[in-house]
Design a protein that fits this description.
By secondary structure, this protein is α+β, with helices and mostly antiparallel strands. It has two helices and seven strands. The radius of gyration is 17 Å and the shape is flat.
Length: 134
């Protein structure tokens, strides 16, 4: 792992909301809840924004794995709107990266939160997964 980043550095990701991003738990559970960006889709995009740091930090034989995700919604994002997600490098404690994350549509604050990711050797991760599946 190589870290060239400092607290306060940012990575930005743009995501356009699609119908498949709505909260919909299927016909057996009531179906579509509402036509706005769901928490689980937002979480995926927030993690991706923070992963942009990991992609530049990890060695070829390493991988990042999520360790935490916190999201606080402030406003909705609707289909067709572009959400700008900014991850801010907060800290690196050994192999553990923590980022603050913010999502906006224009001036509208959609969500805030934070992510945690750990950078580990691919072989170690594969061995851990195999041991847990045995």
């Amino acid at each position: 792992m190589t870290n060239t980043f400092h607290p306060g550095d940012v990575k930005t990701h743009h995501y356009t909301v699609r119908a498949e991003d709505f909260a919909d738990f299927g016909p057996d559970t009531g179906g579509l809840v509402h036509q706005v960006l769901s928490t689980f889709a937002l979480g995926r995009e927030m993690e991706w924004a923070a992963r942009l740091f990991v992609l530049e930090m990890k060695a070829p034989d390493e991988e990042g794995i999520g360790t935490e995700l916190f999201i606080q919604h402030h406003a909705p994002a609707f289909a067709g709107e572009t959400v700008v997600i900014t991850a801010t490098f907060e800290a690196l404690d050994g192999p553990a990266l923590r980022c603050a994350v913010e999502a906006r549509v224009g001036a509208r604050l959609v969500a805030t939160g934070h992510t945690g990711q750990r950078i580990v050797a691919r072989a170690r991760l594969a061995a851990r997964f195999a041991a847990l599946q045995a």
